[in-house]
């Protein structure tokens, strides 16, 4: 059986979070991602997707645009797909943010978003292993 995971990692999400962080640190121009940074954010997103696909290689992932198709057992619980989509999108966004804050030398934020990404990955794995009886 195949399941599609739709990735909703976006420049807007990254811009909103980095803008808020930049304002609180009074370094808005150094920390906030903007439309000018869209190429870099796109590169970071590609890196995050590649990393994720490597981690779930056992499911034979295939990327087509913003959709990853995976092969799952017949007893996979399809009811969790919306939650899986959200968890994977959060994972992608947190990975992008962690990399962004590393680039902008905000190490405390890098650590926070890296930990959030790790926690999301644990949730994703739990969801991928969910089966019906």
Descriptive labels:
single chain, 133 residues, mainly alpha, 5 helices, 10% strand, elongated
Report on the architecture of this protein.
The protein is mainly α. The chain has a three-stranded antiparallel sheet. The longest helix has 23 residues, at 81-103. The chain has one domain (2-128). It starts with a strand and ends in a 5-residue tail after the last helix. The protein is built from five helices and three strands, in the order βαααββαα.
Strand order of the largest sheet: 1-3-2
Structural class of the helix and strand makeup?
A: mainly alpha
> How much of the sequence is in beta strands?
5-15%
The low-pLDDT segments are none
Q: Note the total helix count.
A: 5
First and last CA, distance: 16 Å
Helix share bin: 55-70%
Main sheet overview: 3 strands, antiparallel
How many beta strands in the DSSP annotation?
A: 3
Ordered list of secondary-structure elements with their pairings:
Blueprint: E1 2-6, H1 11-25, H2 28-31, H3 38-55, E2 62-64, E3 67-71, H4 81-103, H5 107-128
Antiparallel strand pairs: 1-3, 2-3
In short:
This protein is mainly alpha-helical and 133 residues long. The chain is 62% helix and 10% strand.
């Amino acid at each position: 059986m195949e399941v599609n995971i739709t990735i909703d990692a976006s420049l807007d999400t990254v811009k909103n979070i980095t803008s808020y962080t930049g304002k609180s640190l009074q370094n808005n121009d150094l920390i906030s991602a903007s439309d000018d940074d869209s190429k870099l954010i796109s590169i970071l997103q590609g890196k995050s997707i590649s990393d994720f696909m490597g981690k779930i290689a056992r499911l034979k992932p295939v990327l087509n645009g913003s959709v990853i198709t995976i092969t799952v057992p017949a007893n996979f619980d399809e009811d969790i797909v919306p939650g899986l989509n959200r968890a994977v999108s959060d994972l992608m966004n947190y990975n992008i943010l962690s990399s962004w804050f590393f680039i902008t030398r905000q190490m405390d934020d890098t650590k926070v978003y890296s930990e959030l990404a790790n926690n999301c990955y644990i949730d994703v794995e739990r969801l991928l292993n969910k089966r019906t009886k």
